Amino acid sequence: MVFHKAGDYAAFLGAMADATARTPRDLLGYCLMPNHFPLVLRPHADGDLSRWMPWLLTAHARRCHRHHVSARDSQRGGDRDWHSRHSAHRTALGSLPLATIRSFCVATPCPFT
Fold first, then answer.
1. Is the model's pTM score more than 0.85?
2. CA 102 to CA 97: how far, in whole Å?
3. pLDDT band for position 101 (50/70/90)?
4. 35 Cβ partners below 8 Å, 6+ apart?
5. pLDDT of res. 73
6. Cβ–Cβ < 8 Å for 42, 28
7. How far apart are CA 69 and CA 106, in angstroms?
8. What are the tens digits of pLDDT across the range 52-97?
9. For residue 18, is pLDDT > 50?
10. Which site in 29, 41, 52, 62 is 20 to 30 Å from 91, CA atoms measured?
């Protein structure tokens, strides 16, 4: 999920405004939905979109992590050992070829070119 509650939508719109202040672009349309957000953008110059999107996504991910993960961990008394408890999953997935992992994410796998 990209957006968990109403405040996440507002924060994302604020992050979009901050990203635009850093790298101008025209926003022609958008639709924020719980699991994705299509955007119609027109960059002003070459490279603008490749600077704007990573900044926006990183800012939003950091905010969500601070807000949701920190709140969850404080309710449970912290979760410092999460990585050690889940290392078996990382090891198992790490032994699979990347194309195999991707095929689990799509309804109909196709050759990766």
1. no
2. 9
3. very low
4. 1, 2
5. 53
6. yes
7. 27
8. 999 999 998 898 888 776 555 555 554 454 444 444 444 444 554 5
9. yes
10. 62
What six digits make up the tokens of 10?
A: 């507002």
Strand pairing partners for 29? 40
Tokens of 68: 């949701």
Give burial (CB, 10 Å; 0-12/13-18/19+) of 56: buried
Percent of the chain with pLDDT over 70: 60
Of the candidates 20, 98, 96, 86, the one whose C-alpha atom is nearest the C-alpha of residue 53 is 20
Helix and strand numbers (H, E) in the chain are 6, 2
Phi/psi for 33 (5° steps) reads -125, 160
3-class secondary structure, 27: strand
Look up tokens 């050690």; give the residue. Answer: 84
Structure token digits, residue 112: 């990766």
Beta bridge partners of 43: 25
Contact 48, 25 (CB under 8 A): yes
The residue type at 39: L
